[in-house]
Design goal:
- This protein has four helices and no strands.
- It is an all-alpha fold.
- The protein has a domain of 57 residues.
- The termini are far apart.
Length: 101
């Protein structure tokens, strides 16, 4: 079942327009490249630790959140839950790295 999103206006339309050039560049890459880059960023963050780890993890959180925001109207409930879970886990990792015991 395909959902046809309603036409957007306001802030969402402005973010979608601003995001279009980056999304077009990303769409030209092989599908695995963005995933591998994000995974590598998280692995480096875990191995390195410190302030660099917080920055790398925060970049992953921002990127995943941005993609989730853009795709939200077109995602099914299951897809939304999975992406929100990934976002929450990355955010938890970021907070844990920023405020260690």
């Amino acid at each position: 079942m395909s959902q046809t999103p309603a036409p957007t206006s306001g802030l969402r339309a402005a973010i979608e327009r601003a995001s279009l050039p980056v999304l077009l560049r990303l769409s030209r890459l092989p599908r695995a490249v963005p995933f591998v880059v994000l995974l590598a960023g998280l692995v480096v963050a875990i191995v390195v630790g410190g302030p660099l780890a917080v920055v790398l993890t925060a970049l992953v959180v921002v990127f995943v959140g941005w993609l989730l925001y853009l795709g939200w109207p077109r995602l099914s409930t299951g897809e939304r839950l999975g992406r929100v879970a990934v976002l929450v886990l990355a955010l938890a990792l970021c907070v844990t790295q920023a405020f260690p015991r």
